[in-house]
């Protein structure tokens, strides 16, 4: 029997997610696809896990790395941009990395980009020498300027960065971009990407306590399963043995297929998990290569 936990040691895994914002819904949906459900506290800041020892804390995204660092939460779902900005701040203050990216989660995609007024003829970073750059990401912006060997003034703004040039607060901006529509509406053009971002599962550099680590591993296995099957389909078909090599050449994104002999015929019944999109055109090519009775099935759950 395992010894009782030391007083003060938490036994339930606590995950910080954004309360309101772009990442709140997809983060909850991902954890929901992992089979977790919760009861919400009346103040809607805490969700108690119903069917697994995994609770949620709903917070501002900027607080997530600090909550993990302090041990108040074990994991968090946050934009890579926020995680790396705070990591860079720590480095700049001479402190070591404490929180790292455990998994990229494939939603909340955006980039941190340098954007200049549309009437600038962009010739490269040297053009920024002595200029003012408005941003909510001063540490990442300074890292990039240092790497370019450019000296520029960084104007730190907490929001509405894109209007700074029009207000005369700055010459250019360094801001998050997804479609680029907000920049265009402010007569700005992105000229250089500093960081490709998406939502990530963040966790401590150091190991978790054994009970929490076990729950975290369970969660990671489920997240990996959900991420792997997001675009995956199970392809079933039959093919003569002689056509097999040609058929498999058309399935470069498939896991090694399983084959069963079809009794009394020189045929194999095959099933292959494809990670790419299986279009009609692909099915037609497979048929031309000798496959028949093709069937594409959705995959609901997977545990490797
Ligand atoms: P909070 O109140 O939690 O501080 P916020 O205003 O800082 O919220 P959101 O605007 O909801 O945060 O953005 C959360 C994350 O969504 C960003 O940190 C980024 O990773 C991601 N994101 C994706 N596309 C965009 C975009 N076009 N603009 C800003 N963030 C984006
Ligand atoms: Zn924020």
Which labels suit this protein?
binds adenosine-5'-triphosphate, 7-stranded mixed sheet, 32% strand, 16 strands, binds zinc ion, 5-stranded mixed sheet, alpha+beta, 304 residues, 3 domains, D-Maltodextrin-Binding Protein, domain 2
Per CATH, the class of the largest domain reads: Alpha Beta
Superfamily at the CATH H level of the largest domain? Periplasmic binding protein-like II
Strand order of the largest sheet: 2-3-4-1-5-12-6
| Topology as a string of helices (H) and strands (E) | EHEEEHEHEEEHEHEHEEHEHEEHE
What would the principal axes of the Cα set say about the shape?
Answer: globular
The gyration radius over C-alpha positions equals 25 Å
Q: What's the helix count?
A: 9
Specify the structural class.
Answer: alpha+beta
- In terms of quaternary structure, what is this? single chain
| Poorly predicted runs | none
Bound molecules: adenosine-5'-triphosphate, zinc ion
The CA-CA distance between the termini, in Å, is 29 Å
Estimate the strand proportion: 25-35%
Number of strands: 16
Number of domains: 3
Q: What's the main sheet like?
A: 7 strands, mixed
CATH topology call of the largest domain: D-Maltodextrin-Binding Protein, domain 2
CATH architecture of the largest domain: 3-Layer(aba) Sandwich
Helix content: 25-40%
């Amino acid at each position: 029997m395992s010894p009782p936990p030391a007083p003060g040691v938490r036994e339930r895994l606590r995950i910080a997610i954004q309360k309101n914002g772009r990442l709140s819904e997809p983060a909850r949906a991902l954890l929901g696809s992992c089979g977790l459900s919760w009861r919400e506290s009346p103040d809607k800041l805490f969700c108690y896990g119903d069917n697994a020892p995994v609770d949620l804390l709903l917070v501002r995204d900027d607080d997530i790395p600090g909550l993990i660092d302090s041990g108040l939460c074990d994991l968090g779902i946050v934009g890579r941009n926020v995680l790396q900005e705070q990591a860079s701040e720590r480095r700049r203050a001479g402190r070591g990395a404490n929180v790292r990216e455990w998994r990229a989660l494939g939603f909340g995609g955006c980039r941190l980009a340098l954007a200049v007024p549309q009437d600038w003829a962009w010739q490269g970073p040297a053009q920024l020498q002595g200029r003012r750059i408005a941003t909510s990401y001063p540490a990442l912006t300074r890292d990039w300027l240092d790497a370019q060997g450019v000296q520029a003034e960084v104007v730190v703004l907490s929001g509405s960065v894109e209007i700074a040039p029009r207000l005369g607060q700055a010459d250019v901006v360094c801001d998050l971009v997804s479609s680029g529509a907000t920049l265009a509406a402010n007569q700005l053009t992105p000229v250089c990407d500093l960081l490709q971002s998406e939502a990530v599962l963040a966790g401590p550099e150091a190991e978790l306590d054994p009970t929490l680590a076990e729950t975290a591993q369970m969660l990671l296995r489920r997240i990996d399963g959900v991420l792997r099957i997001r675009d995956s389909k199970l392809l079933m078909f039959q093919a003569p043995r002689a056509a097999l090599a040609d058929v498999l050449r058309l399935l470069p994104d498939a896991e090694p297929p399983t084959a069963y002999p079809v009794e009394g015929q020189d045929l194999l019944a095959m099933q292959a998990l494809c990670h790419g999109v299986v279009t009609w055109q692909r099915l037609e090519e497979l048929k031309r290569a000798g496959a028949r009775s093709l069937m594409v099935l959705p995959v609901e759950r997977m545990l490797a």
